[in-house]
Sequence to fold (252 residues):
Amino acid sequence: MLTQSQIDSYHRDGYLLASGLIPDSLSAAAETRMWDLMEMAAQDSATWSRLPDGAHEFSESRGVVIFNALQDEDLMACATPAYLAAVSQLIGESVEQHPPQTVHTQNLLQQHTEPSTPRPHIDGIPKEHMHRTFPGPYRIATLVYLSNIEPGGGGTAVWPGSHRKIRELAESDPVRYEYLFDFNKDIPSLDLGDPLIVEPRRGDVLFFQHLFGHNGTANTLRRPRFMMRYFCRCESCFTTWKKTEEWGHWTP
Ligand SMILES: O=C(O)CCC(=O)C(=O)O
Ligand SMILES: [Fe+2]
Fold:
């Protein structure tokens, strides 16, 4: 599904933004479903700033609307055979027998903030999890976008090659950096170079590795940004990165 040069760039840069794994008809249907869940009308911008009653969580500081464990067919259909094949190629192990089971959203509402320089984080921060830096909470993370993202509309900041420098720092002091919670505090002090802000199209997928520096950016536009990650509740995923009472991140 992916070319050798895409696979090589994932290993070299720590991330890969891929198009074409989710056919347009499927991502369009998923976007439509997301508008419904958000209790918004795509054609009526007056509905776009309201926090949906059905949202499971809302983070005011990031403007992020979270739904957990959605099982809607139109959303799950985005975990296509091509998507699963791509994940398998990137981790070098078949995941077809272990597909994701539900969806977790990170939809961004408009924020009235001044543009600011993004700062990198690595995943696995929340203190309650106390994730160990090694092996970490996952091998690969995938973000599936259901919006066409314009500049200023909540693209994702990525630091190409950051996984190597971050790993070097972690390995330089395994005791001090045993836990991601402590380690994350020192990440911004590293010189990781300038970030790229990726502005995916609907149906694009961003893959990145454990210890890859990235972050969300504020959505300063009216149109909400839709993005989802996957959940699973098998024994292995649930113990690797528990997110709710019943669900963990899909961590193939
Ligand atoms: O919202 C984004 O663009 C990135 C969110 C993020 O950091 C994550 O899902 O790990
Ligand atoms: Fe993250």
Observations:
- The chain has one domain: 4-38+51-113+124-249.
